[in-house]
Design a protein that fits this description.
Blueprint (H helix, E strand, L loop, with lengths): L2 H8 L3 H9 L6 H11 L3 H5 L1
Helix pairs in contact: 1-2, 1-3
């Protein structure tokens, strides 16, 4: 899944997804939960 597709599915900004993915930014719990839900994984799985 592209960053743009994930961002759209999670209703977050694509730049935010990129920054979290590269470690330049830590996402809020709300943002991380939205990303995990969009990916169909648990928050714990996302953090690994």
């Amino acid at each position: 899944m592209t960053q743009a597709a994930l961002a759209a599915k999670a209703s977050v900004n694509r730049v935010t997804v990129a920054e979290i993915e590269t470690g330049r930014k830590q996402g809020s719990v709300t943002t991380l939960r939205a990303l995990a839900n969009a990916l169909g994984v648990s928050l714990d799985d996302l953090a690994e």
